Each structure stands twice: as structure tokens, then as C-alpha cells.
Amino acid sequence: xxxxxxxxxxxxxxxxxxxxxLVRGAVQAAERIGISPLVIGLTLVGxxxxxxxxVTSVQAGLNxxxxxxxxxxxxxxxxxxxxxxxxxxxxxxxxxxxxxxxxDAAVMLAVAVGFALLAWTVPLGRIGGAVLVALLIxxxxxxxxxxxxxxxxxALHDKSVALAGADPGLAPPHAARRLAMPLLIALVGLVxxxxxxxxxxxxxxxLARGFGVSETVIGLTIVAVxxxxxxxVTSVIAALKRQGDxxxxxxxxxxxxxxxxxxxxxxxxxxxxxxxxxxxxxxxVMVGVSLLLVLFAATGLRIGRREGAVLLAGYIAYLWAxxx
Length: 324
Description:
Number of domains: 1
CATH topology: A middle domain of Talin 1
Order of helices and strands: HHHHEHHHHHHHHEH
Number of strands: 2
Organism: Pararhodobacter marinus
GO molecular function, one term: calcium, potassium:sodium antiporter activity
Membrane topology: Multi-pass membrane protein
Keywords: Membrane, Transmembrane, Transmembrane helix
InterPro entries: K/Na/Ca-exchanger, NaCa_Exmemb, NCX_ion-bd_dom_sf
CATH architecture: Up-down Bundle
Structural class: mainly alpha
Helix content: over 70%
Number of helices: 13
Radius of gyration: 18 Å
CATH superfamily: NCX, central ion-binding region
Strand order of the largest sheet: 1-2
Distance between the termini: 19 Å
């Protein structure tokens, strides 16, 4: 147990620490060379906080463990909605901006449905991965144009605001005096993330074999929750600060990044079939809870404590159904 637990725990710690350093260094470097805070928030911060999921899924795919790779993507989205949104709503009711519901939540639901259908019909090869990544790039470009015109926020923007709330050092403007130090910080963070992903994948595979549990179950639960720690921390801090709207945007933006960015990059780099158990059960669950979140948000433009309790109870029920 110790032999499998240490790589798993060490990998998670390296992923969290490396992800924070990577985002910090990249943001400071981008500010130093004059990139706008809006673009930084929607791209570098968004991708940076999703880097643990990205590295873990890609490494698992390259190691021939698609259950961990795609279980991480689908499991993270389920955990974001049921666990993270549930806990956040229990702390403070989540307020939902009408624009975020119309645009971002609708996109989150659409990409969840699209991923489930794609995984059900064809192997996720490089063409499918390229389509997912292209959709993410197009969506980010659309959001940047819209937010520059209206300055009305949005899920991807809220994702970066949530991180800045958890780590004030990332709140723009925070220009570094020199470019070398931010780049060095980002490089160290990247090395830690890659090492952490490697330890996490090897530890997860060993844990699955030791307990006689499928790699897919480990990917959907332990790996998914572990790599979602940045989203959990930032959403809870936003809720404690009574910034429920930011918590909602952080969760929705993370789910969009997970499917289009991480699922797409994994299919591009390590194409494979999505495991049949994910296609048959977990992907439909992801679609169902995404729809449930949208329905909760649409009723009064808030997710109250009662809805939060329902979401959290749903996650407990999901774990109970998943584990043998």
C-alpha cells in the first residue's frame, strides 16, 4: 500500500505546486511583454490551472492507459459539478449571470453532449482531437472579442478571477521587473507538473492493480479529484468571499477546457478508444449532471444550499455506483 500511495500522493503534490508556479511565471512573463490582462486570463491562466489534468491525461494515453486518460477528463467534469459546485453552494449560494448562463453554460452542455456522442460513435483519433482543440481556440477567440466589446465577464474570465482570488500575486497588473525570472519560474513549474503527472499515473496504475480495481475507476475518482484540486480550492475561496458568480464561471470554464482542450490534446497526442464503460455510463452521467447544473442555474439565476446538497449527495451516489 505504501509503495503505491507514495507515488500517487507525491504526484498530486508536484502537480499542484508545479501548476501554481507555471501559471505564476507565465502570467508575469506575459504581462512583462505587454499582453493584455484579458487575454492572459482567458488563455494562460485557463490553460495553466488545467495543466495537471492535461499532463496526466496525455501521459496516461502515451502509457497505454486510456481509462486513466479519459476517466480523468470525464471524472473531473463530474467532480467539478457535483462535488465542487455542491460544496461551494453549501458555503455560499452561487449567483449566476444571465450572460454566463446563455453563453458559457450552454457551451459546456453542448461540448459534453458532443464528446459523449463522439466517444460513442468513433475512436478519438487525431482528427477528432484536432476538431476539439480547434473548437476551443475558436471559442476563446469569440469570448475575447465579445468581452472586449461588452466587458461583461464570462466563464473563462471568472476562472482566472477565481485563481487570482486564491493567489493575489496573480491578479493583474503584476508586471515583473525582468523577464528571466518569470520564465525560470514557469520552466520549473512545467518540470514539476510533468514529473508529477508521471508519478501520478504510475501510482494510479499500481493502486488499481493492487486493489483489483480497473484503471478507469481510479481515473474517474482519485486521479480526477486530485487533478481538480486547483478548481476546488479556487471555487471554495470564491464562495468564502461571497463571490458565487465567480465560482460558477470557474466550474463552467474548467469543464469546457477539460473536454475541448484536454480531451482534444490527449486524442491528438495519444489517440485511442474511450473505454466502453465510460461511454456506456460515465459520459451519460457527465451529460446528465451538466444539464442538471444548467437547470439549477436557470431557476432564479442562483444555485442555493438546497441544490448544493443535492449535487453533493449526487456525487456520493455516483461514487457508490462506481466502486465495486
